[in-house]
Design a protein that fits this description.
This protein folds into two domains: 5-131 and 204-220; 134-200. With 223 residues, the protein is α/β, with parallel strands linked by helices. The termini are close together. The protein is globular, with a radius of gyration of 17 Å. It has helices spanning 14-29, 52-65, 87-91, 96-115, 120-123, 141-148, 152-162, 176-183, 189-200, 202-208, 210-220; strands spanning 5-11, 33-39, 41-42, 45-46, 70-76, 124-125, 128-129. It has eleven helices and seven strands. Strands 1, 2, 5, 6 and 7 form a five-stranded parallel sheet that branches. Strands 3-4 form a two-stranded antiparallel sheet. Helix 1 runs parallel beside helix 9, helix 6 (141-148) packs antiparallel against helix 9 (189-200) and helix 10 crosses helix 11 (210-220).
């Protein structure tokens, strides 16, 4: 087994890239796993408009570049389009765990079908977050309330309604990002979102976001 592992993460946008760079990467580096986040590439576009046809190009590029690196995704379920593998089946599921299982399994199967001769079965780890990156920001209600300068009771009401961060749904009106903007009109994903994530810490996020924790655990097992 190697003393270290290298992994490229195809991230949906700038916030996800910074989250991996500044919070996930230092943690993994301490375990000998070096993760490099890149934003989905397409001429004239960065982030958003998450079609599988668009991400497929980056998957192919990085699987073909080096046979000794791993590849993962860091994509929001909320933003994916209907061409994504497993999209229809995932939409039929009522709980986040089942949605994640359907979408991630179908993504893995499709990538293996397309790029199996480049070792995707071993090298590719899909991760479609439930339901948005912003859900993780609800992992520590006190830290979130403090960062947003809002009453703790406002955060508690959301978690009482939904159960846990990854269960905050993907409706255009009540998705995690929409709720945060209702709590504070000054909320900005890339600035305040990262500040909240740092204040919360990776340990607390893993404790309260089991789907995210499962992904990070799988990466930890690469070496």
């Amino acid at each position: 087994m190697n003393n270290f592992a290298e992994i490229v993460a195809i991230a949906e946008g700038k916030t996800e890239q910074i989250f991996i760079q500044e919070i996930v990467s230092p943690y993994l580096a301490g375990k000998g796993i070096y993760i490099t986040p890149i934003i989905i590439s397409k001429p004239g576009q960065k982030g958003g408009d998450v079609k599988f046809a668009r991400v497929r190009n980056d998957i192919e590029l990085h699987l073909k570049q080096r046979a000794d690196t791993f590849l993962t995704l860091f994509i929001d379920y909320y933003g994916i389009r209907s061409d994504w593998p497993g999209f229809t089946e995932a939409k039929k599921q009522s709980v986040p765990d089942a949605k994640a299982e359907k979408i991630n399994t179908a993504t893995k199967d499709q990538v293996n079908k397309l790029f199996g001769d480049h070792g995707s079965e071993r090298r590719f780890i899909p991760y479609v977050a439930m339901h948005e990156f912003e859900a993780m920001l609800f992992s520590d209600p006190e830290k979130l309330a403090d960062q947003l300068q809002v009453p703790l009771s406002a955060i508690d009401r959301i978690l009482t309604e939904c159960g846990e961060p990854e269960k905050i749904n993907d409706s255009p009106h009540s998705a995690p990002s929409k709720r945060l903007k209702k709590l504070s009109s000054r909320f900005r994903k890339t600035s305040k979102g990262i500040a909240i994530a740092k204040a919360t810490g990776l340990v607390k996020i893993r404790e309260n976001c089991p789907i995210f924790n499962k992904w990070l655990t799988e990466i930890e097992c690469l070496k």
